[in-house]
Design brief:
UDP-N-acetylmuramoyl-L-alanine:D-glutamate ligase, alpha/beta, Protein-Tyrosine Phosphatase, Chain A, eight-stranded mixed β-sheet, globular, seven-stranded mixed β-sheet
Amino acid sequence: MASYLQKIWLKIKKKITKEKIRQFIPNEIVNDFFHLPKSIMAVLWYLYPAKNLYVIGITGTDGKTTTANIVYHILKTANCKVSLISTVKAVIGDKEYNTGFHVTNPDSFALQRLIYEAKESGSKYLVLEATSHGLVQHRNFGTNIAIGVITNISHEHLDYHKTMKNYVLAKAKILNGVKYSILNRDDKYFRLLKNKYSGRLFTFGLDHKADFTLKTFPFKTKLYGRYNRYNCLASIAVAKTLGISDEIIRDAIQSFKGVQGRMEEVGRGRKFRLFIDFAHKPNALKNVLKASRKLIRGNGRLIVMFGAAGLRDSTKRPLMGEIAGTLADVSIITSEDPRTENVNKIIKQIEKGMIKTGVSEQKITNTQKKAHNKHFYRIIVDRRKAINWIIKKLAKKNDIILFCGKGHEQSFCIGKTEYPWDEKNEILNALKK
C-alpha cells in the first residue's frame, strides 16, 4: 500500500512543477514578500555600498547595453574612476567579469557584492544596466541611482508583464527618486514616461524638439545603424549632465569600437561579410536588418539566421518571422535556447509570421549543392548545422550575413541544462572547414 501511494505521489510531483505553482501566485506577491526582503538583506550585508557612488542607471528594450558601455567609455576617456555592470560584462576597477550566461539584472546579493567591490576599487561612478524584471523584483534596491536613462520601449517580456502598459511602468521605476531623468523624445511611450520622471528632465532624439539631437550635438561614430545614433545621443545626454567637455565626449564617441556580440563583424577579409548580433526581440531584429541592408554592395543578399527562446514571450515569435520575411532576402530559422519547450513548436510559431509575408520555404535535399538565389526561408533546427550550411552552401560574393539571437552569450540552454556555446567561435570554425 505504501509503495502504491509513493508511486502516485511521484506521478503528481512530476506534473506539479515550480513553473506551474508560480502560475497561481501573482508576481506582486513574490516581488514584495520574497525579492524585496532579499534585496534589503543584501544591502545590509554589504553595508549599503552604493551610498558614496554616483550611479547612472540605464534601461530600455533595446540599446541599454551599448549605451551603458558608451557612457562607461566616455567616463574612462575623461579619466574618471568608474565601474560598469552590464549584461555582457562587469568591469570593476581593473577586474573584468563575464556575465554572458543568460544574465540580465544580477541577483540582489551578486549585484551588491559587485557594487561593494566597485566602492573598494576607488570608483566614484558606477554605470548600471537594469532590466524590467530587475526593476519590478527590487533587485536594484539600494543602488542609489542618480541618473535614470530609458533608451526606448517596444514589444518584449509580455509573458511576464502581461500588458505593454505594465512593461512601460516597470521600466519607469528606474526614474523613481533620481536627480536627472533622460528619455527618448521620439519614443512612442514618451508621453507616458514623461508623467513618471523625477528630478530634472533631459531628452534626446533625432527629432528637433529634443534637447540632444544630431544638430545640437553633432558627432562621428563607428557604429552602424540609425538605432545607434539614439544610443550615442543618450550617452551624450548623460555625459553633459555630468559636466564632461564636448571635446572629450566627441573623442570618446568616435573611438568607441562597439560591444561584443552587438553587430560584431566576424572573419573579416572574405568575399561576403558576417556579423553576430544579440537581436532577439522584434524591434531589435528590425533595426539590425535595416542597418545591414545599407551595407550591401552590388548583387549581394541580406541573409539572417535567428530563432526564439523557449519559455519566454511567445507573442513576439510570429512578429519576428514577419519582420525577417519582409526585410531579409533569405531567412534561416533555427533553435535558440529552447529550454523545456518543444523547439519545433517555437519554429512553427515563427514560421506563421514568415508565411504571412508570402515568402516560400525551400526544403533541404541531399543532392542540393547550392541554394537558389530567389527570396526564401529554410528551417534548420540544429544551430551548428545552420551556421555550417550558411557558410558552406549559401554565402556568396557581396552577401551580408547576420547571425542573431545569441550575441555575447556563452551558453545554450536545452531542457534544464546550460551547454557551452560561443557563436563567434562556431562561425570561425565553420570558416576554417
